[in-house]
Amino acid sequence: MSDYDVIVIGAGAAGLAAGEALAQAGVSFAVLEAKDRVGGRAWTDERIFPGIPFDRGCHWMHSASHNPFREIADRLGVDYRRLGTRRSSGLYLAGEKADAATTRTAWDAVEAAFAAADGAGEAGRDVDAQSVCDTAGPWWPLARHWMTLLSALPPEEISTLDLAAYADTGENWPVVSGYGALIASAGAQVPVHLGVEVRAIDRSTSPIRVETSRGTLRARSVILTVSTNVLASGAIRFVPALPDAVTDAAANCPTGVAEKVAFLLDAPIPDFADTSYIDTLDLDDRTRAPINFVVNHFAQPVIVGQLCGETARKLEADGEPAMVDFGLAALKDVFGSAIATRIRRATATHWTSDPHIRGAYSCARPGHAGARATLRVPIDGGVFLAGEAVSEHAFSTAHGARRSGIDAARAALAQSG
Ligand SMILES: Cc1cc2nc3c(=O)[nH]c(=O)nc-3n(C[C@H](O)[C@H](O)[C@H](O)COP(=O)(O)OP(=O)(O)OC[C@H]3O[C@@H](n4cnc5c(N)ncnc54)[C@H](O)[C@@H]3O)c2cc1C
Quick one: 73 and 190 in the same domain? Predict the structure, then answer.
């Protein structure tokens, strides 16, 4: 049994940042991570496409000019691309490239949907985003796809007040060597105990007892950075039980679904610029969900597709071949069926079924925009929740997670005096 000032549970962006702050303060702490790697949802896979880093989770430094990871990238000399919004350069309708005017109209409709939902939230309305959007227009399926992708829940489950609280500068800068790798480098000095799964947190005693797969530890405070779905799942037992307000807040700010499917080709696609964003949808077949891709990812022969919502949930449950087939069908529409012969390797992510993550990023349900504030309140006995879901204005993101970890560390330090 070891005693620490603080135990941090989880070594994602939030946990690593908490560890950095605690190390700077000179207190004793342990960072416990269930997986055999750091980063959590920040994971650059260096092995799947040899020599080409692939971000399975976060990829874009959102709101880059205000993003602490952009400052860290500059300090470490890590390269990134200064891109703007993800407005696509090509819209493919059942495989046919739409002309520039149609593409502009479609994206204007996407942006109008976001503006309507944000507008309702800015007016203080905590209603479902779909209810304030023009769902009758021809481009609603595309708007619905993008709203679902950015919040990981479909518009009818998104709180407009929560959506409007997100601070977006419109800068989405991808990291060439991988955002996951950057986040791991930022926290490289933090000692992490890998492969240690926390099973129970007993705050009925002081110090708090943390039961793990490798034995019991004790600490004056605990910083818990797991996703809201992990928190709500009961995978970690709390003694005494978590306050109902916290359990309800986690359930009403769930970690929604977003996944990726990626292809390594024999060569980059000719006539497509480096890192082109395209959307595909079939207006005549509403049962077929849209999918967007990054083509010639950093000028490499890689295409990355983004899946979300119910489509992603179902495909992920069906398994990797189903996810790859879905992505490939859209690519065949765009590039012709010969594209299949050019694929050297394919992969898909599994955040939804990952027992330590259970989803992609959090979104407050209609009527529950206050959930994040509830999750930020320290839990009696010295437990502080951190992680992207507790961020006030940068939830769903890696930089929001980082800031929440630092805030939780400061709160834990303040409590210990
Ligand atoms: C597909 C996808 C794309 C994304 N794209 C972007 C993007 O482009 N830009 C962006 O900013 N964000 C993006 N995000 C979101 C971003 O990755 C997350 O918001 C952020 O990484 C969350 O960090 P965190 O520390 O809050 O949580 P996590 O990364 O989930 O860290 C929590 C850690 O706790 C560990 N853990 C869980 N249970 C236990 C236990 N019982 N005991 C010990 N450890 C445990 C987990 O293994 C994990 O490592 C994306 C996410 C996904 C899934």
Answer: yes
**Considering the domain boundaries, does residue 85 fall inside one?**
no
CA 42–ligand 1 middle distance (angstroms): 6
Residues 191 and 325 in one domain: no
* Pair 265, 340 in one domain: yes
Choice from 58, 146, 172 to test ligand 1 binding pocket (greatest atom count within 8 A of CB): 58
- HEC states along 251-296? HCCCECCEEEEEEEECCCCCCCCCCEEEEEECCCCCCCCCEEEEEC
Q: Is 69 in the pocket of ligand 1 (CB under 6 A)?
A: no
In a domain, 334, yes or no: yes
| Nearest-atom index, ligand 1, CA of 227 | 30
Cβ atoms of residues 399 and 62 within 8 Å = yes
Find the CATH number of the domain harbouring 69: 3.50.50.60
Cα(357) to ligand 1 centroid in Å equals 7
Q: Which of 348, 383, 398 corresponds to the end of one domain?
A: 348
CA 9 to ligand 1 center in whole angstroms: 12
**Do 185 and 320 sit in the same domain of this protein?**
no
Task: Determine, yes or no, domain membership for 405.
Answer: yes
Q: Are residues 277 and 342 in the same domain?
A: yes
Domain end position, chosen among 292, 313, 348: 348
pTM, two decimals, is 0.98
Whether residue 14 has its Cβ less than 6 Å from ligand 1: yes
C-alpha 253 to ligand 1 mean position (Å): 15
**Is 212 in a helix, a strand, or coil?**
strand
Distance (Å) from CA 283 to ligand 1 centroid: 34
pLDDT in tens, 274-299: 999 999 999 998 888 999 999 999 99
Q: Which two tokens stand for residue 39?
A: 């980063």
Tell whether 355 is covered by a domain.
Answer: no
One domain for residues 96 and 75: no
Q: What is the DSSP string of 344-355?
A: EEEEE--TTT-T
Location of structure tokens 């800015």: 122
Domain count, the chain: 2
Ligand 1 center to 210 CA (angstroms): 21
For the Cβ of 148 lying below 6 angstroms from any atom of ligand 1, the answer is no
Tell me the C-alpha distance between 224 and 56, whole Å: 23
- Domain limits at 203? 2-79+175-254+364-416
Q: What is the pLDDT of residues 202-254, one digit of tens each?
A: 999 999 999 999 999 999 999 999 999 999 999 999 999 999 999 999 999 99
Atom of ligand 1 nearest to the CA of 56: 1
Q: Is there an atom of ligand 1 within 6 Å of 316 CB? A: no
Cα distances (Å, whole numbers) of residue 262 to 55, 78, 83, 302: 10, 23, 21, 7
Q: Which amino acid is at 160?
A: T
